[in-house]
Write a structure and sequence with these properties.
mainly alpha, disordered N terminus
């Protein structure tokens, strides 16, 4: 089951990456544990060496300190996502299994809705593939640094005789980051768009619901119950998704602010262009990652709210059957509850948070730059 990936599935490419990195929820448990231990151990080692680099260089090399800080940030980012993937294996299995209950686009006869949803699916799949191709290119540029500049891809203290070993370790770790970190980012984006498609199909069903026809009350009630049950299913599915990714939301927000701030600070300072380009690539990668969480979450919330608008446009209040009329009132009341994707209530994933993140990055950069000028 885990080895089969449907070509028409939006999540196929992210799930392939997770499978290759042994971080897929259906991967053999022992192999997942072994890869988790290796990845986390490598991240902790590089983080420890980066901390030592900060301690030994903070008085005479502010740029190397910034590189080491970036390395710490990157390693803790990886540790958080690797551990979260492992701890939520069971919930992720449930999430993937429940996708079998999703409605199929091909089952909808309306040419308009079919064309719209097919375009969304195709666009997202292409977008994810372009994203992964870009990540591979950036990863290769970073991994070639030992040959181009004689330094590690990630700045840290290098004990004597450790350079070659650390270089190989960073190469292997970059593959784990591609499979695990970027794989998880792509998975959230793809599964979110799948949910958006389901909400759009549900909205379409509500819009085209026939309230006044010659069919029996029982048939009308059956159709309404099916739609309500499916709305409840999608709501529960979103809650499960939020449970799995709550810690990632908080981690992504904190890591992205620190990483982007340091990246902009280094890029704006005079120095070697190879180093400045490396940090602007860091910045672009972090912006892309953060958008992979904020934008899909915002689209889900908007798509869920469209159901309320669709129901309100129906002439349900003209129905003489009180039981069905009360059911519509309950549906309207439930759709008024705003769906929220949040990191333990501390940060919400939406476009407003993304704007705050961008503003905070530049505010933090201005603060660091002003402190540096004062010290001069």
């Amino acid at each position: 089951m885990a080895k089969k990936f449907r070509s028409d599935d939006i999540s196929a490419d992210p799930l392939r990456l997770l499978w290759l990195g042994q971080m897929h929820p259906f991967s053999p448990f022992r192999r997942s544990v072994a890869f988790l231990v290796m990845n986390v151990s490598a991240c902790w080692l590089l983080a420890a060496l980066a901390i030592k680099g900060i301690i030994t260089s903070y008085k005479n090399d502010i740029f190397f300190v910034a590189e080491c800080l970036q390395t710490c940030n990157l390693m803790f980012h990886g540790i958080g996502k690797f551990v979260n993937l492992f701890l939520h294996r069971d919930n992720l299995k449930k999430l993937l299994k429940n996708r079998s209950k999703f409605w199929k686009i091909d089952d909808f006869q309306s040419e308009e809705i079919y064309q719209e949803l097919s375009e969304i699916t195709s666009t997202v799949k292409k977008g994810l593939r372009y994203y992964y191709c870009g990540v591979v290119v950036v990863m290769l540029l970073f991994d070639l640094q030992p040959f181009a500049t004689g330094s590690l891809p990630s700045g840290c203290y290098v004990p004597e005789g450790w350079f070659k070993s650390l270089t190989v370790m960073t190469w292997l770790l970059s593959l784990s980051f591609l499979n695990g970190v970027q794989g998880m980012d792509g998975f959230f984006c793809s599964i979110s768009i799948s949910i958006v498609i389901q909400f759009k199909m549900l909205t379409h069903r509500f819009k085209n619901m026939r309230l006044f026809h010659n069919e029996s009350e029982r048939k009308m009630w059956k159709e309404l119950k099916e739609l309500v049950d499916y709305h409840n299913f999608l709501t529960s599915y979103c809650k499960l998704l939020n449970t799995i990714f709550a810690s990632i939301f908080l981690l992504q927000f904190l890591v992205s602010i620190i990483s982007a701030s340091v990246s902009i600070f280094i890029f704006m300072q005079p120095g070697a262009w190879s180093n400045r380009i490396k940090f602007i690539l860091y910045y672009l990668a972090v912006v892309a990652e953060t958008s992979f969480y904020c934008v899909p979450a915002e689209i889900i919330v908007n798509s869920a709210s469209e159901i309320g608008y669709a129901v309100s446009e129906l002439d349900w209040y003209k129905i003489r059957i009180n039981q069905i009329k009360k059911c519509f009132v309950i549906i309207l009341a439930r759709t008024q509850r705003t769906m929220v994707f949040t990191g333990y209530g501390l940060v919400n994933m939406n476009l407003q948070t993304f704007v705050v993140y961008v503003k905070t990055v530049f505010s933090f950069y201005t603060y660091i730059n002003s402190v540096r000028k004062i010290e001069k």
